[in-house]
Design brief:
This protein has about 80 residues and is mainly alpha-helical. It has one domain. It is built from three helices and two strands, in the order βααβα. Strands 1-2 form a two-stranded antiparallel ribbon.
């Protein structure tokens, strides 16, 4: 049985921020720029107000990045 440490979703926690960046870079090398990851991280932190498993926080940030990524053809959202 594995245990997953609980973390408080604080956007000023540098260790947590480094873990988020490392997770995304490991899973999706070069896919997301730092600003996109930071926005997703801050949005997830703003939506949580209690401790949660680290694995769950990382997954929420990954999902936030996937849902807010730019269009694959390079056009701005809503542009024709």
């Amino acid at each position: 049985m594995t245990t997953d440490a609980s973390v408080f979703p604080d956007p000023s926690d540098d260790d947590l921020w480094q873990a988020v960046r490392a997770d995304l870079e490991t899973r999706f090398p070069g896919r997301y720029d730092e600003a996109t990851v930071r926005r997703a991280f801050e949005a997830v932190c703003a939506g949580e107000d209690d401790y949660l498993p680290r694995r769950a926080l990382l997954k929420k940030v990954r999902m936030a990045c996937m849902w807010t990524r730019p269009s694959l053809d390079g056009r701005a959202e809503g542009a024709e």
